[in-house]
């Protein structure tokens, strides 16, 4: 049996593969009826898996840059894992907690991911890249809060946190879940527009440079054709 090249099987890629493999586990935890507990074990386990998977998104990229192990496989798997995780989370939440995550919100959030992937693919084909914007970088944090809050809201509208023997802090899970998911939608739309503007400005400059290069080549050919013999 032919072994894969060593540069493809490194630690960052293994971490990325772990994130991909955690997606069906996360979906199973939200949809199964085998571990429904009276203390929210199902919700807490699903949140723990999602948070752990989200954290690996930063770890694998950091290790790949730090160890000089940026590979073609990693460049393919990392964005694929991100898109799969977002799609799986919000599609499952449409079924799991539809009054917090309606279908149209999931379409907007997932559609943004397809749009950005498409723009980056076109940019790569044209020979330039679109850097991640600040909005795109902050999306992951908002995404974690929105998904975790939507999962917890399925069981708790409010979460009492005892401070002392006589004082209790009421954590408004329902309010936070609704605010987080709406903020996630707004951030998805804003970052999609930001990526599209960046793409359009770069593709416009690319077209101008191509036209100038073509004009220069044509002018040189004409001069050569009309040159005296």
Could you explain the architecture of this structure?
There is one protein chain. The chain has 229 residues and is mainly alpha-helical. The protein folds into 2 domains: 1-96; 98-229, no CATH class. The protein has helices at residues 11-31, 41-66, 72-96, 103-126, 134-153, 173-226, and strands at 159-162, 168-171. It has a two-stranded antiparallel sheet. A hairpin with a 5-residue loop joins strand 1 (159-162) and strand 2 (168-171). Helix 5 (134-153) packs antiparallel against helix 6 (173-226). The model has no long low-confidence stretch (mean pLDDT 78).
Count, helices? 6
pLDDT < 50 stretches:
none
**In percent terms, what proportion of residues is strand?**
under 5%
In sequence order, what are the helices and strands, one letter per element? HHHHHEEH
Strand tally: 2
Strand order of the largest sheet: 1-2
**Which bin fits the share of residues in helices?**
over 70%
Q: For the report, how would you describe the main beta sheet?
A: 2 strands, antiparallel
SS-derived structural category: mainly alpha
């Amino acid at each position: 049996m032919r072994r894969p090249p060593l540069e493809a099987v490194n630690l960052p890629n293994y971490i990325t593969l772990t994130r991909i493999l955690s997606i069906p586990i996360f979906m199973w935890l939200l949809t199964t009826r085998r571990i429904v507990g009276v203390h929210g074990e199902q919700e807490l386990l699903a949140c723990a898996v999602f948070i752990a998977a989200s954290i690996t998104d930063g770890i694998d990229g950091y290790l790949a840059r730090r160890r000089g192990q940026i590979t073609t496989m990693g460049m393919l798997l990392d964005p694929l894992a991100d898109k799969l995780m977002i799609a799986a989370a919000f599609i499952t939440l449409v079924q799991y907690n539809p009054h917090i995550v309606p279908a149209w919100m999931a379409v907007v959030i997932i559609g943004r991911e397809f749009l950005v992937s498409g723009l980056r693919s076109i940019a790569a084909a044209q020979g330039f890249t679109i850097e991640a914007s600040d909005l795109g970088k902050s999306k992951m944090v908002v995404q974690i809060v929105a998904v975790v809050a939507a999962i917890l809201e399925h069981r708790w509208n409010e979460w009492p946190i005892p401070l002392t023997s006589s004082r209790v802090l009421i954590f408004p899970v329902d309010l936070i879940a609704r605010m987080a998911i709406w903020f996630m939608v707004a951030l998805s739309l804003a970052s999609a527009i930001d990526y599209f503007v960046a793409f359009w400005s770069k593709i416009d400059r690319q077209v101008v440079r191509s036209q100038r290069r073509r004009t220069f080549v044509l002018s040189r050919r004409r001069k050569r054709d009309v040159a005296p013999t």
